[in-house]
């Protein structure tokens, strides 16, 4: 089968035209932290498959969890029925977050939609406050709280609900910003259902890191004005920032939390929206129910992934990645075409002055034996926690890409 030609003829890839302007590459195997292409090349995966495969690929424990569950049942409807993998997972997530009510969804975007529904249904109000620079997903409710100017959804701006946007939180403590934030919340509190933010790290909206004091202040403002706080932890959850959840940096608990991506270790699509007892009791019947809600295969592998996370020294691994990224990218700041270099936990970012030539950068890093997927003005990495010495290859590839900026 000529897979690439058939792909070009029929497949629509994410954030791409058909056929895509940037070539796609056929993967035939993934194991550990490496992807094997059909032409025999091996690439260190610096993306964790969009930040999900925190344990790497083809992990025997995760494989076995899927096999074991497959022998019992692959799926059963969740309306009127239940099963052990989903119940065990909900219990684990409730214990880990302090949020006792768990609604299982099928993707991060759906988890955000459910969170918004919860806030609207509980309060009877239909506006949200968020900050610029955010990204919360590609469905309509989620798109409406993504950055309205520099985000990827400006084409739909006329069709989206209009929410309230505060300025992007700064990287360091900033009294003037906190005062502006308080004034903005107070001005709109009467019409708001909730505040929704990504804790500490804004992901696909620009890979921006902000100081936990601003998140802590949002918790205080939500309490002062009787608003809900929704934490979108889809990208930040399960250790990526150096804490188990981004909210832990600020020592706060939201009223509603969204989880996804790394929840199943990158094996199957699964997400969750968690909330407090007060929120659940106030809502009563929540009018949402995905067909594949609580899928047993996904729930089983998610439980196995949480077991692995509990057993492995992920804090030390993430701290080691942070140190390796800091050292490996130390020669990039100040290069022509580079605006900023930043590292937090297992996240390393080179922000460029001009938009990245994705095809050129992708070819260059692949020549160094690394898989990255730059976008906008960002060359970044979120490697699996077990990347080990291969991290040096990742930072060398990123450095080479940065040095090539502006050259023919």
From TrEMBL:
Enumerate the residues binding pyridoxal 5'-phosphate: 108-109, 232, 290-291
SUPFAM superfamilies per UniProt: PLP-dependent transferases (SSF53383)
Cellular component GO terms held in the UniProt record: cytoplasm
GO terms assigned for molecular function: adenosylmethionine-8-amino-7-oxononanoate transaminase activity; pyridoxal phosphate binding
Q: What broad class of enzyme is this?
A: transferase
**Annotated metabolic or biological route of this protein:** Cofactor biosynthesis; biotin biosynthesis; 7,8-diaminononanoate from 8-amino-7-oxononanoate (SAM route): step 1/1
What does the record give as EC number? 2.6.1.62
Q: Which domain of life is it from?
A: Bacteria
Where, in this chain's numbering, is substrate bound? 50, 135, 261, 289, 373
Report the record's Gene Ontology biological process terms. biotin biosynthetic process
Its keywords, alphabetically, are:
Aminotransferase, Biotin biosynthesis, Cytoplasm, Pyridoxal phosphate, S-adenosyl-L-methionine, Transferase
Keyword Amino-acid biosynthesis belongs to the record: no
Catalytic reaction annotation: (8S)-8-amino-7-oxononanoate + S-adenosyl-L-methionine = S-adenosyl-4-methylsulfanyl-2-oxobutanoate + (7R,8S)-7,8-diammoniononanoate
Report the HAMAP family cross-referenced here.
BioA
Q: Which PANTHER family match?
A: ADENOSYLMETHIONINE-8-AMINO-7-OXONONANOATE AMINOTRANSFERASE
The record describes its quaternary structure and partners as: Homodimer.
What is the protein's given name?
Adenosylmethionine-8-amino-7-oxononanoate aminotransferase
Q: Which organism is it from?
A: Planomonospora venezuelensis
| Gene behind the chain | bioA
């Amino acid at each position: 089968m000529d897979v690439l030609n058939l792909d070009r003829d029929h497949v629509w890839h994410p954030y791409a035209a058909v056929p895509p302007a940037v070539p796609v590459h056929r993967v035939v195997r993934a194991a550990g932290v490496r992807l094997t292409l059909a032409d025999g090349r091996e690439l260190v995966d610096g993306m964790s498959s969009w930040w999900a495969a925190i344990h790497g690929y083809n992990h025997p424990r995760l494989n076995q969890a899927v096999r074991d569950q497959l022998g019992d049942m692959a799926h059963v409807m969740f309306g009127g029925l239940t099963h052990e993998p989903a119940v065990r997972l909900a219990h684990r997530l409730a214990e880990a977050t302090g949020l006792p009510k768990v609604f299982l969804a099928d993707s991060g975007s759906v988890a955000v939609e459910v969170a918004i529904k919860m806030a609207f249904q509980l309060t009877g109000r239909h506006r949200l406050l968020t900050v610029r620079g955010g990204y919360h997903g590609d469905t309509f409710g989620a798109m409406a709280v993504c950055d309205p100017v520099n985000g990827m959804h400006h084409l739909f701006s006329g069709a989206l609900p209009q929410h309230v946007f505060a300025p992007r939180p700064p990287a360091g403590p900033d009294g003037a910003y906190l005062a502006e934030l308080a004034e903005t919340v107070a001005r709109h509190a009467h019409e708001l259902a909730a505040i929704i933010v990504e804790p500490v790290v804004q992901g696909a909206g620009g890979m921006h890191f902000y100081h936990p004091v601003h998140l802590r202040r949002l918790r205080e403002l939500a309490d002062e004005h009787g608003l809900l706080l929704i934490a979108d932890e889809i990208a930040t959850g399960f250790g990526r920032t150096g804490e188990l959840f981004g909210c832990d940096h600020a020592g706060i608990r939201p009223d509603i939390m969204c989880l996804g991506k790394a929840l199943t270790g990158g094996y199957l699509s699964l997400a969750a929206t968690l909330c407090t007892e007060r929120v659940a009791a106030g809502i009563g019947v929540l009018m949402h129910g995905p067909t594949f809600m609580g899928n047993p295969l996904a729930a089983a592998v998610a439980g196995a992934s949480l077991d692995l996370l509990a057993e492995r020294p992920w804090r030390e691994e993430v701290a080691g990645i942070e140190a390796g990224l800091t050292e490996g990218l130390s020669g990039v700041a100040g290069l022509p075409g580079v605006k900023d270099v930043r590292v937090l936990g297992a996240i390393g970012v080179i922000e460029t002055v001009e938009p990245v030539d994705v095809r050129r950068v992708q070819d260059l890093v692949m020549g160094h034996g690394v898989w990255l997927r730059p976008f906008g003005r960002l060359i970044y990495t979120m490697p699996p926690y077990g990347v080990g010495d291969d991290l040096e290859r990742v930072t060398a590839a990123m450095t080479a890409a940065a040095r090539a900026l502006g050259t023919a």
